[in-house]
Design goal:
single chain, ten-stranded mixed beta sheet, 14 strands, 13 helices, two-stranded parallel sheet, 3 domains
Length: about 425
């Protein structure tokens, strides 16, 4: 018996033939495919697990810095809305699973239609701060900008009392005035199992009007984040930090907001004609101009009113440049420093990678980057071996095959470079 090759019901050709051929129309009615039976609904717990896994994956697509600067938040909300529109049950599950990552359990739940904004930035004061109540929190940016004091004619950073939840994966220490060793030691005590750490110093680039700089007016006061580009000094610095990172055994990513340039690069950009033409606005070195004071006496009075408990600066020493002069790129800075900075960063990333084996990415502050605050990221990889390993460090986006690896050999408790030119 000959078989009938029936076109699908929505085929235009089938509709035309059905109108003109009564016999075919009757056959189509007789052999019409019946719809598949409606699938049985899954248990509610399965849907809950699916939504929870989806939201967990969505949250992990951003870094702690991206949450702080709200990069990609709109795309997240669009993805959440598309799932919430599936059904009433999905709407409720997304609402519950998303909000629990950002809210304290003790707080009242928002309206059913509301998705809370990711809360990751926490301001700190001298009183203890307990963040362990955020039981689902994975990302936290801690504001250390005011964590210092002036007493007995001495400025000193404060070690604050903080409690963090064990769920934390990525931590950002913002605008710190303490050293890397002290800060990393604090992180090791608070949350030793984190996988990503960002240490962002208070610098002349991100907070030039911080009160701290009123008592730290000399170039040497910036040496903790202006490291210079001498390779010997860079290696010593990287080994010191790598030793401190031993307190964080699961760390795969670290950002250190140090700049591999000398203080002379700052003076050159502020004063030399080849740099001045790239300034977006006029720069002033006078403290009086920033408070619109007529003389030193008036300035001191205005300062004491605004910053009680902190001594006024020496107005005869130039103040730090306004953030605005770092906004625009400077071709002369790039010409003078880009290559030397890259060599220093490559060495530092390599040393960190060979000494801290869990690391996969390292980033630094970059003097020739946008606003002088955008991070310079390096991806690192290493071969396996007990006594000899190859280490390759490359800028993010650079083909790995174009980078010459460096060979290191164990010497006692440290690794020493054997070969592989910078």
């Amino acid at each position: 018996m000959a078989s009938l090759d029936l076109p699908p019901d929505d085929c235009p050709d089938a509709r035309r033939r059905a109108r003109t051929t009564p016999l075919l129309a009757s056959l189509l009615g007789r052999f019409k495919r019946t719809p598949d039976p409606k699938p049985s609904p899954l248990p509610c717990e399965v849907y809950r697990m699916i939504i929870a896994a989806f939201i967990s994956s969505l949250i992990d697509q951003r870094s702690v810095r991206q949450y702080r600067i709200r990069d990609g938040i709109l795309e997240q909300k669009k993805a959440l809305v598309s799932v919430r529109l599936v059904s009433r049950m999905f709407l409720e599950l997304v609402w519950v699973c998303w909000n629990r990552h950002w809210l304290e359990p003790s707080l009242p739940a928002p309206n059913m239609l509301s998705l809370v904004h990711p809360v990751t930035l926490f301001e700190l004061s001298t009183s203890p701060r307990d963040l362990s109540r955020f039981t689902q929190l994975r990302f936290a940016s801690l504001d250390f900008g005011c964590a210092f004091e002036y007493s007995d004619s001495t400025w000193r950073p404060l070690i604050l009392t903080i409690s963090l939840p064990p769920s934390l994966q990525e931590l950002e220490i913002l605008w710190s005035h303490a050293s890397e060793e002290d800060t990393i030691a604090l992180v090791g005590r608070l949350c030793p199992n984190i996988v990503a750490l960002r240490l962002v110093f208070c610098t002349m680039f991100n907070r030039p009007r911080c009160v701290w700089w009123a008592g730290h007016q000399h170039p040497a006061d910036h040496e903790h984040y202006l490291k210079g580009c001498g390779l010997a000094e860079v290696e010593i610095y990287a080994r010191t930090v790598a030793l401190a990172l031993g307190a964080l055994p699961n760390l795969s990513s670290v950002h250190l907001s140090v700049y591999f340039i000398p203080p002379q690069a700052i003076d050159a950009h502020r004063t030399q004609p080849l740099h001045l033409r790239y300034h977006p606005h006029r720069d002033s070195k006078r403290w009086l101009n920033h408070l619109h004071a007529q003389n030193a006496t008036q300035f001191a009075a205005m300062w004491n009113a605004q910053h009680p408990g902190f001594p006024s600066p020496d107005v005869h020493i130039p103040c730090l440049a306004d953030k605005g002069i770092w906004e625009a790129p400077c071709r002369e800075c790039v010409r003078l420093w880009a290559d030397r900075v890259e060599h220093a960063e490559r060495l530092a990333a390599t040393i960190l990678a060979v000494e801290a084996w869990s690391l996969k990415s390292v980033s630094f502050g970059l003097f020739v980057a946008e606003r002088r605050t955008s991070p310079s990221e390096w991806m690192v990889c290493r071969s396996t071996g007990e006594d000899r390993v190859w280490v390759r460090a490359r800028r993010s986006g650079v083909d790995c095959r174009s980078v010459v690896p460096m060979l290191f050999q164990r010497s006692g408790e440290t690794w020493v470079q054997v070969e592989g030119p910078m």
